[in-house]
Amino acid sequence: MRVNGCDYRTVWMEGSTVHMIEQNLLPFDFSIVELPDHAATARAIAEMTVRGAGAIGAAAGFAMAQGFIEQKESASLPHAAKAAILATRPTAQNLFYAVERVWKAGCEGGADGAVAEARAIADADAEASCRIGKFGSKLIGNRANILTHCNAGWLAFVDFGTALSPIYHAHRDGKSPHVWVDETRPRGQGARLTAWELTQAGIPHDIIADNAAAHFMARGEVDIVIVGADRIAANGDTANKIGTLEKAICANHFGIPFYIAAPIATIDAACPDGNAIPIEARSSDEVLWQQGVDAEGKRHTIRVASPGASARNPAFDVTPAALISGIITEQGIIDAASAGAIATNHKE
Amino acid sequence: MRVNGCDYRTVWMEGSTVHMIEQNLLPFDFSIVELPDHAATARAIAEMTVRGAGAIGAAAGFAMAQGFIEQKESASLPHAAKAAILATRPTAQNLFYAVERVWKAGCEGGADGAVAEARAIADADAEASCRIGKFGSKLIGNRANILTHCNAGWLAFVDFGTALSPIYHAHRDGKSPHVWVDETRPRGQGARLTAWELTQAGIPHDIIADNAAAHFMARGEVDIVIVGADRIAANGDTANKIGTLEKAICANHFGIPFYIAAPIATIDAACPDGNAIPIEARSSDEVLWQQGVDAEGKRHTIRVASPGASARNPAFDVTPAALISGIITEQGIIDAASAGAIATNHKE
Q1: pTM for the whole structure
Q2: What pLDDT sits at residue B176?
Q3: What is the CA radius of gyration of chain A?
Q4: pLDDT, tens only, A284-312
Q5: What CATH code is assigned to B133-347?
Q6: CA angle A277-A279-A283, nearest 5°?
Q7: Rg of the Cα atoms in chain B
Q8: Three-class DSSP category at B3
Q9: Is A183 helix (H, G, I), strand (E, B) or coil?
Q10: What is the sign, positive or negative, of the torsion defined by CA atoms of A269, A314, B144, B150?
Q11: What does residue B196 show for φ and ψ, rounded to 5 degrees?
């Protein structure tokens, strides 16, 4: 995707150096970090310089390839590098998958094989996101108003993203979409990252308080809702950023199509339904405090709630399959109820 | 209500001096301002030292009484004071009502009559809120979890409030309620004012991101929703803080009772339905920037969204009567659909 007129991916490799957009500084500063070895790349993954399932997977694959490059002259395998990379984000499924693939390729083909496999993983992620966009853009009419929640844009993947990819494609096709960007409290990924992406892409949008979505739905100003997914159960129940369930219920109330956009790898066929998905409880400080920059550009962390008050902060919620119009995947748009079967076929 | 162990109203009069809680400093500082004359009180109303329909009305009544006191020795009426008070908050219905009542009493009974009338207005507001609490507390079971949105507590009235009054009464009755406090972006009245009130009252509560309400409803952790109202149409459609509609739709989806708490004066019998209620569009800066204090207590205003992004900020939404289980008034709990008829009878 383009930033300040240049094409970027979230993470890529040049020679033996991994490059990443420093996402911790967004949306206030845009910069690229250069990571010379696996240790630096692993640290960047742990410190969330890169975030989002697809982007973390690609970064981990490149880090593993760096591990093989570092041991090129010796006969030993980079076991320590593998352990260090696996320890960065203990619950990221894509990370394990990518590290194992690159490990196997490195064992068989050495550093060159490892680098080629890491590139293939990143390319496949970008290709899947691109295909999601092509399928999803068919759902977007001319001058459509699309509501999205959180950030399932290209910053969370290698390129294009999931929920935003159909919007990017519709924009390129000249359909003039307009996007309602849910702020997405408490962490504000909509106001910070989705709005930043859309500004860079030149796509008209308005940030709204999460509270305002139903108001615009009631006025007929939302044509379709598209969001990403963190995990999809076999029956189609979908875990995604907290607030997704509210948007799904409201869209259902007003008869507005509600779509999930996600690669098939997001479907966990071994998970029967939403009840089996554990919900991460994050620190209440994310609700009670906010970070940002003042008018002079100086960063501050401020308390935005009454001192002494407590807070609860579930990071995700589960939207039942019955509220989901369809899942936009790289294989096409599927019924939520058939998610498990399609994921199982895809694997075989 | 008690603050730091002492009983307070939001606004009261001692001699010729009006006292108010300085609400602009809440929740970070608690202080009382003393306003020696009508000009000072009018300025405090305009600067939102006092806010909320009931509290503004009481303050305006006291300011008008101060106008009569200031002219006690002369034969002329305080026309200039009346004009100054009426100009403070041009859309506040309670303000006009209170000023007219005190004006009439002052014309007939002089300064003493004006002061007595202003006190009667404040007492009636507190009494109505108290009665709302008594009726509403019957809806709250032992150890109930109540969700509320925005601040319809005593800070918005003279005492007790509307949506929070049933909770205060249930707490005093030993029912051990727990309150889910919607943060209420963009202005955060839940996180700032409702949480502050509940902390002072010693009522267990948790602030949640507005996004999290449906999640707790889905888990069976919300027994009832009670919110306030800015304006109720004759057919029961209710305008209230943005986000109220989302909570009503979600409560309806999960079969959770959803109540409005408001004095009958909030019903506008001349307004046929929600379509006739204009929705104020407020500055996008309220969405894009946030105010608060840092760890050292220093106030900052920070940008919390991507620079250059635009925002939309409707201040209210309209919840259709069909989603409302009932309206808790000082006359008892009424059907939303009969709002107009009851308000008309009440006036006659």
Answers
A1: 0.94
A2: 98
A3: 20
A4: 999 999 999 999 999 999 999 999 999 99
A5: 3.40.50.10470
A6: 165
A7: 20
A8: strand
A9: coil
A10: negative
A11: -65, -45
Enumerate the residues of chain B whose CB falls inside 8 A of the CB of residue A289. Answer: 292
A43 DSSP 8-state letter: H
Q: Look up the CATH superfamily of A2-130.
A: translation initiation factor eif-2b, domain 1 (1.20.120.420)
Look up the ipTM and state it: 0.93
* Active-site residue, from B125, B159, B182, B230: B230
Name the DSSP letter for residue A160: S
Indicate the domain borders of chain B: 2-130, 133-347
> How many Å apart are CA B226 and CA B181, to the nearest integer?
11
For residue B70, the surrounding DSSP H or E stretch is helix B53-70
Contact criterion met (CB < 8 Å) for B214 and A317: yes
Name the pairing type of β-strands A11-14 and A17-21: antiparallel
Restricting to A residues 28-47, those with a Cβ less than 8 Å away from any Cβ of B are 28
> Does residue B186 have a cis peptide bond before it, meaning omega lies within 30 degrees of 0?
yes
* Distance, CA of B85 to CA of B99 (rounded, Å): 8
Is the CA virtual torsion A185, A189, A194, A196 positive or negative?
Answer: positive
Query: What is the amino acid identity at position B338?
Result: S
Which of A155, A157, A177 shows the shortest CA–CA distance to A166? Answer: A177
Q: How many angstroms separate the CA atoms of A32 and A45, rounded?
A: 14
Mean pLDDT across the stretch B219-247?
97
Q: In Å, how far is B64's CA from the nearest CA of chain A? A: 33
Comparing CA positions, the residue from A245, A179, A326, A110 lying closest to residue B213 is A245
The half-sphere exposure of B288 on its side-chain side, counting CA atoms within 13 A, is 19
Residue A288: Cβ-neighbour burial (10 angstroms; 0-12, 13-18, 19+) = buried
Facing A218 at nearest CB: one of B195, B245, B288: B245
Tokens (6 digits) for B60 = 């305006």
Residue B95: Cβ within 10 Å count: 24
Exposure of A54 in the CB half-sphere (CA atoms within 13 A): 34
Q: What is the SS3 assignment for B239-291?
A: EEECCHHHHHHHHHHHCCCEEEECCHHHEECCCCCHHHCCCCECCCHHHHEEE
